[in-house]
Each structure stands twice: as structure tokens, then as C-alpha cells.
User: Fold this.
Amino acid sequence: MSQGKRPSTVTPIAPALEVDDASVVDWSDSADVVVVGWGAAGACAAIEAYCAGASVRVIDRFEGGGASALSGGVVYAGGGTPYQKQAGFDDSPAAMAEYLRHEVNGVVSDATLQKFCDDSAANLAWLEAQGARFAATMPDHKTSYPPEGKFLYYSGNEVVPACRGERGAPAPRGHRTVAKGQSGKVLYAALRQATLRAGAVPVTQASVRRLVRQRGANGQAGAVLGVEVWQLPPGDPRTARHAELHRQVARWRIFRPAKAAACRREAALIEQAAAQPRFIRADKGVVLSTGGFIYNPDLMAEHAPHARRGWPVGAAGCDGSGLRLGQSVGAAAQALGNISAWRFITPPSVWPKGIVVNTEGERFCNEQVYGATLGHELVDHQGGRGWLVLDGKLRAQAIRQCLFGGLWAFQSLPALAMLLLSAKKAATPEALAERLKANPAKLRASLDAASAAARGEREDAFGKSPDMRHDMGRGPYYALDISIGSPTFPLATLTLGGLVLDEANGQVLDTHGQRIAGLFAAGRTAIGLPSSRYVSGLSLADCVFSGRRAGRAAATP
Assistant:
């Protein structure tokens, strides 16, 4: 490393070690199934593999948790869960599948989507058997994340008219784990304890840097036999420091991202200096579940340059190591340019009554859609730049909701900063357009059309519900910067693409569509239900679905 150059925090991945026979490798340990990555998907894979009769080793670069432990702990579930029924809602797997087809966009087959929906209530019950808890209490308005004491909500676009299916009224499917504060750490804690109860042996503060593969005969690829692991030595003071740095990253990643980045770099230096290699054999299969690649700058620059200015959401280990391990043995990857860009404009619940416009002043989306849907339209189709336009009445209502509406600090504080400190104000649409460097005629037309729809004089151009329309015929007007680079209102980003799988069992496919023997994947390392469009809770639900599938298949090849 040259003097003054910052160390890379990305796990180095070497080409696969090809051997003629497994006996030539100096294996230090072995198990039937080796799981790489101990987040929600990895935990589910490990538990299911054990239940199928396999011995399990689960490896994690840090101490487990991944992005799942940092999440909101929301599981997307439906088809008639007990909590939907307690809250007075009817739902069915067919209705759930009909809605999700709008979000999945064919990234998985209809058969896989239907199985996910058919199994949904059972998978939620399975999570409860591992120690997670859910409840039926609901907030009284649409929100990005339920307030304290509320655990069931509309987590996607179910209430948006254009997304409603023909199979009855929409049903809430966001099931937040019962906990105080953010629920992800509680959900993961339950899965972690269940992993340990199942008898899986954790190998922590260890990164897999290479796959071991049998050299195939007659030009055919051989099976994956195991992994090369670089582990920090137990009892070493540097190892303890590495664990503390990971805790610091989790603590500071939101409010002091520069400090969190410095901690990631120091942890990487410790790994480079102190980690020691060893080989672990997988007698039946390896499961890759290391998360996405939001913290891999090279992969982001290659596949998603449009999203690099966003605020990355993920754990320090989300550097694409699982993806690159799969590719080292010829695995195919798909949808690597698909990024979830979360531009939530609710709460405050009145913000969606305003309009969102691009740099020209043209309205471009139904404001009541889920934040990832709005973010997709903003980042993928508007160059990442846009404005939320409110009138004085909506602004005043929003301020009251932020101060007295029982919102989370991460919801209310950025909104207040936008409303009170950075909003651009003008008396007329034309004057506001001048401040935004937008087209005055287009902004006027956007406001006039939305107001006419609110008065019932025309249909809303984007299908907004009548109760969310608002007559904005009188100023003053306020414009809030919702662009991806907004310093006041960060836009969160998450990678969605990954390794291509045989959807029947989670086995990784190569670039010719052939199964790679002994290799499976789950969670955001692989293509799954959320790989086209993100819906709150769908990633964790897919981690359960795909993790259980991969663990079961790896244990019974």
C-alpha cells in the first residue's frame, strides 16, 4: 500500500483453489454444511441444515448479524397470518401474489412467487418457533416505519389504487418484530440463539477469501469442496479491538458516517495484519449468504454509478464477497444495477399531499407510493434530482406532526430541518420556479393539474387516492430538496442483485445455466423476491424463505 493511501475495506477474494482430490488439502475442520455469512439468511440456512441432519459451521467476518441486525426487523408476510386476522383483515396467498407481481417484475418465476406466498404464514410461524414475536397493533396512518407499540402496517404500495388487485381490499403485510426501538437486533438475536441451540458451530471474525473446488474431468467443472478462511487469533488484543470497532461502526453509521468509515478501515488493517489462514471442508455443500455489495466502491462504480451519492444501508461486511466467491467458480450474476433508493416522504403523513417535481417543474410520480418506488422513479428516471412542493397549510401541518405526532427521531429531525432551515419559499409558482431554476410554465401546470384533481374537476394524472389530494391553488409555496445528494435529507441505498439460482433449491448456476455442485446462496447475495423492487420487510422475508431453502438443499444433496 502506497504511503497516504487509505486501506481497502473490501474482503480480498482469490481465484478458486482447484485440486484433483480433497485429500491433498490440509483441512483444519469439516462439517456437512458450511454457511458463509451469519445474518438472517445464514442463520436460517444453518438452522434448516441442522434440522435436516447435517453438521454445520457458520462463518462470519465479524460476530454475526449483518444488515439484518441493523434493520427495522420487518418481515413481509401475508396470506392470512394470525395478526392480520386479529386486526380484522382477510388475506390469501392468491391476493398476496397478485399484489407482489407488481413489485417482483418477473425477477423470479411465478411458481417461486406463489410458493413464497403459500409458505408465508408458515414461515412467520417458523420465526416465532425460533423465538421472534409479532403483534396485531397498527398505526392509524401510512408510515415508513411503525411508531412505538405498533407492529403491523402497510409496508408497501398495497393502498395505492394502481397497485390494488382484483382479489378484495388491501391487507397490511408488514410484520414488525415486537421490540422497543428498531427491531432488527431483536429479530436477529432470536435467530442467533436458535442457530446456537441447533448445534451449529460459529467461526467468527473470519473471512472466506477463496473456495476450494475439485478439478473436473473431461472439461467439466467439479464440485465445491470447502473454503479457505482467514481468521483472527482468539485471545489476541487485536481481535478484541476488531470486535469493538465493529460495534462502533454500528453505533456511528447514521449520525457520524465518517467516524464509522474510519472504524471500518482500522478493522480492515487488523484483518490484513493478524488474520491467519486455514481450510474448512464442506462434505455436502457451501451456502453463500454474505449480503449485498453496497460497501464495494469498485462494484458500485461498475454496476450502479447512478447511486453512488446515496447513503449506503448495510453492514460493514456488505462488500460483495459472496457474489465474488460465486463468480470465482463461474457463477452467473443478474440485476447488479438494481438499487433500492429509499426516498420516504411519509411521515409526516401530510407530505404526500404535496407534489413531487423534477428539475423542470414537472410532476413525475404518485406521491403516496412506498419510498423505494418513489426513489426508483427519482434516481433511475429523473437523474436523482427532484423537489417536494408544499403550500403553507401543508407545511404547518407537517411541522405539528413532527413536533407532536410521536414520530421517531430519524423521521422527525430530518423533516424539521428541511421544513425550517432549507426549504425554498416563494409567493407564486413562477417565483418558486425561478428559485429552483425550473420551468415556470411547467411548475404552474403541475400545481394547477394536481389542484384540479383535488377539487374533483379531473382525474389525478398519477392515480393518487382522493383522500391524499390537496388543492394547492394559494401560496406561499415551499420546495424541499429530495435529491439523492441532499445533505439535509439523505437518500438510503441498498443493492438488490446477486447470483443466479436454481429457484427450486437455491443452488448457484453458472453462466451456462448449469448447477454448480456443492454451492448454494441465499439472501441479498443472490437473486430473490426483492431483486427488482424493494418493499419494506420483503428482504427479511426472502432471507427466511431462501435461507431455509438453501440450508435444506445443501444438507440433502
User: Anything to note?
Assistant: The mean pLDDT is 94. Residues 76 and 174 are 5 Å apart (CA to CA). The radius of gyration is 24 Å. The longest strand covers residues 276-288.
